[in-house]
Every structure is written in structure tokens, then in C-alpha cells.
Amino acid sequence: MSLIQSIAGKINQMSGVLTQMQQEGSGEQLGGILQELGQLDAELRHAQVQITPETPEALRQDLVQCRMALHGMLGLVSNIRSDMAERYRQVLGDRKEDFERLDDQSQQNTDPGAYQFLQLFKGMDDVSRHIHQLDGAMMDAGYQLGRGPGEETAVYGDASPEDFTSGTATTDWS
Question: CB-based burial of residue 88 (10 Å sphere; 0-12 exposed, 13-18 middle, 19+ buried)?
Fold first, then answer.
């Protein structure tokens, strides 16, 4: 099993944990999810070092599968956010505005359930940020796989900065 396949398996496991968190309305495992995403980022960066233009096409397909799993996870995170927001509103009802004026400790003491839904809602933003970072790293790895032997690692492929400028400072916009 390749490192990328291992990463895909871990992404699928985390999706299961997120589903469980949504069903329970509990954020107890949120810290573990964030930590695991950070570890996956480190593993992916380690895998990128091993990628060469001669790396097999199968690895490219593994990266595609990982990205698809990440995008599925993003959909799940979005659903959890929506679900937690709805539960939060249902629990608080007309008290929502008053509740939101309280500091964190007072919110937790006043209505622990609503506070938990709010924290899980906010936590999904952190999860989403980590997923986007991983997705970007996977895009970089895919790009790295697509380069031919001896090609430079420019952001825009083999284009030089001069290819994007006209070489003059004037325009015909008058």
C-alpha cells in the first residue's frame, strides 16, 4: 500500500468519525480530527519528496482518489455546520440573541447543549481550513507528477514571467 493510499484510508476513517460527531452532536473528537489532519499534512509533504516524474501513473490516481475523499469530507463538514446551526437555533429559540451577548463561560453555564452546538459549528471552520490545505498540497503533488524530467518547478508550468507581460508599461485603454 502506498503512502497516498494510506492517507486516503485515514481520510475515510475521519469521515466516519465526523459522521458520528454529527449524529451525536458532540465535539469531543474534534481535537483528534484536527491533530490527524495535521499529521496527514506532514505525511503528504513527506510523500511529495519521494515523487519524481518517473513515479507511476497509479500514484496519480491515488492522489485523485484522495482529493475526491477530501471533497466528500468538505461536504460532510458543511452538512455538520448546517446541522449544528439548526440545532443551536432550535435549542435557544427566542433566547438566541441574549445567549450570544454572553461571554464563553456564561454561555457554557447557561445552556451547555447550545454551547456545545456552537463550539462544534465553529470547530468545523478549523477542519475545513485544514482540509483545504491538504487539498492544495495534493494539487501540488499532482502537478509535481505531471512535470517531465528536467523541467523547472515554476508555478505556471514552464512559462516564464516574461510570457505574462507585454514588456512595455503602456496600454491601449484610452
Answer: buried
